[in-house]
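Known limitations

Structure tokens in this collection are predictions and should be treated as such. Users comparing against experimental data should check residue numbering before alignment. To illustrate the layout, the record for FAD-binding oxidoreductase is reproduced below. The input appears on top and the generated tokens appear beneath it.
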Amino acid sequence: MSFLEQLREWQASHAILFGADTAPYCLDQRRRYQGQTLAVARPNSTEQVQQLVRLCAEHQIAIVPQGGNTSLCGAATPLNDGQSLIISLERMNQIIQVDADNNTITVQTGVTLAQVQQAALNVKRLFPANWAAAQSCQIGGALATNAGGVNVLRYGNMRELTLGLEVVLADGEVWNGLRGLRKDNTGYDLKQLFVGSEGTLGLITQAVLRLYPLPTAHATALVAVDHPAAAVELLRGLQAEVGDRVTSFELISAPCLDLLHLHFPRLAQPFQPTPAWCVLIELSDGGDSAALTDRLAEYLFAHGCMDAYVAQNLSEAAAFWQLRESIPEAQRIDGVSIKHDISLPIGAIPDFLEMCDAEMLSAFPGAKIVAFGHLGDGNLHYNLFLADKTAGVYEQEQAVNELVYRHVASHNGSISAEHGIGQLKRETLQQVRSELELTLMRQIKRSLDPQGLFNPGKVL
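Generated tokens:
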């Protein structure tokens, strides 16, 4: 029986999609990568994933693992050859266990980030990972890309939030590493091979994630600064004052606020005129929000931050966060831009921005630089609008990238902070990692996936 004939045996339960029904799974979120697939399989258990992987291994069919299809670098999109099977985990959406005593939650990896956050809230716990796509992104994709978000400063990214995994390997065997232990010093930490691997080493089917006590006090402020160096100084001073209560520290440039005013005029923007830069600060702790808010306000005004707005209630705090979270959508509405998800040593960000901006505007007169991101953990989204705001702008992408990445390298930074490599940065990865590092990566890939079936054309 052929591969497709065996797949059709699943079709009666709507677990397999063929033809036109596969189209939404073959197009990435940015509508940049359009692939083709033999079919889309939607298993609802680890056993079904195991069967599918074994079937693919038998017929040497490539596998593209897919979560919520929110990848920003084409990591979850099949290639154009039409010779792969997409395995979507959307039906594997069960919360397996919430252990409040151990501060852990065990889930199938098709659950969304929002579902995990809510399950934690139900037992007065916090799952701190947080980014704009929480309602649609799935935990499997978050693990596969080692996703970050706005709370990495205090809690770390998905790598730090993961205690155990269950993974279906390339031969269909299942590695059960679902251990909810903070201390387990028994050999190599295998789970870390799969976190951040973008589906190229195995298919993550379950995970044990860390929970934290639910903060009862929050304080939020939007503060104008005249230069990124002032933002770094404010961050360091605030951390010295209140320690790890600094949960988020977001940097926002004037072009971001201008785009928000243009496309979302109903969003409240307190600054008049628009400052060159501002930072969005959130503190969290136990205790009382009013006391924490007063402490934040006192610190800001004592240190000369006169153009600062401290949220007095949850509604005002939510309005500040809506500004930050609406920036990517405002960019999308404005047109096609060349995007960079980079990380730098925090103290190097002001110099990077000054030097890269100057050379960029000299090389591309009239360009609009939209810079924002998670200053607290060194993750900057450095995006560029040119005169052409259609897909034609990608003709300039290589030249823009070479300029940006040269400055990233000179400041000891990384070309990918939280979005991954996927298809978008595959060639660039070969240029920024040493030959030894690439050799080690390829050896790991060959060891775990000797037929090269998992997510071909991504990362390596």
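For this record: The domain at 341-419 is CATH 3.30.70.2740 (Alpha-Beta Plaits). The CA atoms of residues 7 and 318 lie 47 Å apart. Please report discrepancies through the issue tracker.
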